[in-house]
Amino acid sequence: MAGLVGPFALSGLINGIFALAFGLLVIFKNRKSRINRLFFFMTVMVAFWSFCYWRWLLSTSHADALFWIRLLSVWSLLIPIYYFHWTVTLLDLNKAHRFLLRSVYVAALFLLFFSFSKLFVTDVSPKLFFPFWPTPGILYTFYLLTIYLGLVAYGLFLLLKNYRGAPMAKQGQIFYVVLGSLLGFGGGATNFFLWYNVPIPPYGNFLVTLFPFFLGYAILKHKLFDLRAVATELLIFSIWMFLLVRALLASTLLDRLLDLGLLSLLIPFGILLLRSVLREVEAREKIEAMAVELAVANEELKKLDAAKSEFISIAGHQLRTPLTIIKGYTSMVLEGSFGKIEAAAREALHKVFISTTTLANLVSDLLDLSRIESGKIRYEFKDIRVSDIVNGVIQELEETARIKDIRVILNDQVPPAVRALADFDKLHEVVINLIDNAIKYSTEGPVEVGLKYDAAGKKIILSVKDRGMGIKPEDISKLFTKFMRSEDAKKIRPEGMGLGLYLAKKIVEDHKGRVSVKSPGLGQGSTFFVEIPTHA
């Protein structure tokens, strides 16, 4: 029979060690927290109950067994009360249950007064394979129904009631509390069968260990502590407590010295291991906190970017109309629609016309950028001839090319029947940007514009070759990024914004085409290519 009792006695020792270890772990994390303090007191009660349970089952005399079972009952009386107090504190319901808390503490004092009398535990006697098992008194039955079952059940009811409306983090916390409560109190309740002569051994007592584990984890998880660190600390504390208990209960001096020596070696090792794990966890928590801050900052930047895009859109629309009027009237004056003008005035008007055109193009680029970034850019795809766009652009830039004394040569090899499904106006912006850049960044001509049809690839290839400043190899990969301009380009055209090529690339890609550039190097010119799929 002693062999059968041994595992149940050992469950008490293990439960006590784990309960005390987890209680110390939680209280050391935050001694000022009311939640942590109540949890610590509760686990101390569980530990004392467990150690008394262990000593009771190992008792060899009637008197010893009766003493330990009555002392055990003191702690079993207090555990549900501290559990309920801890639960309402966790849920922030202390004020609403102040009267009930005071009442159960008064009831506990009353029952404690009779805890060593026959009204609470009548006697111990053999039951199943246990040599000394208690028989309950009338007050013990009252405690079992009202405090152990009633108070714990009400605490679980409050937890489940608050679960639905709680934030996600709080729901996770409540889940672990409910799980630990059901396992712990449910496992402990299997001890009551034999009290009332139901022949079922207390197999569930082994589950009591999970009670402080899950409740403690709920506290630490709520504080965003790492489970691996918690498990490491629990293991280390458990080993320390186990060795300490072994040393205290050792039957010989040699065994006691060996256990204490091993404990003295494991304490510094455990501290070093704990520090290592905690440093790793703290570093990860800092990274996670920084990631959250970065995400918040990113959201703010997105809002600012959206506000910026909206401002650019509004400002662009307000500027476009007067610029178009200025450009139109200036062009009419230069063409002589309002009569002849003097050479000096014509030169000044040329500068006005060029500056207005540059500003109008910039406004157009900003509007397109705003639409692209906000996802509001719209295309009207039609069956068009790319040659018509290129010819039109060359005519538009005729005055610009004449001022710089640069010829623009077109070599169109695309058959008239070959067409593309494209947005005429958007593709016009791409072509005018490339040819205008070729003229403005060149000091000598000609600018060679080529159009050819790749029948195998079913695409039209536009090439714009200049003899201008060229491009450094390291700048080619960055050329089509937003607001990117090389230092050499800034010297020639300081007024540029670096948007034209970025927008050209976006527009061509939306046409399922491709933009690329080749340059032998600085001072050797460059050639831009645009590939547009043909209309099948």
TrEMBL record:
GO cellular component, one term: plasma membrane
Record-linked Pfam families: HATPase_c (PF02518), HisKA (PF00512), HisKA_7TM (PF16927)
InterPro entries recorded: HATPase_C_sf, HATPase_dom, His_kinase_dom, HisK_dim/P_dom, HisK_dim/P_sf, HisKA_7TM, Sig_transdc_His_kin-like_C
Coiled-coil ranges from the UniProt annotation: 280-307
Residues passing through the membrane, by range: 6-26, 38-56, 68-87, 99-117, 137-160, 172-196, 202-220, 232-254, 260-278
Catalytic activity: ATP + protein L-histidine = ADP + protein N-phospho-L-histidine
GO molecular function: histidine phosphotransfer kinase activity; phosphorelay sensor kinase activity
Highest taxon of source: Bacteria
Protein name: histidine kinase
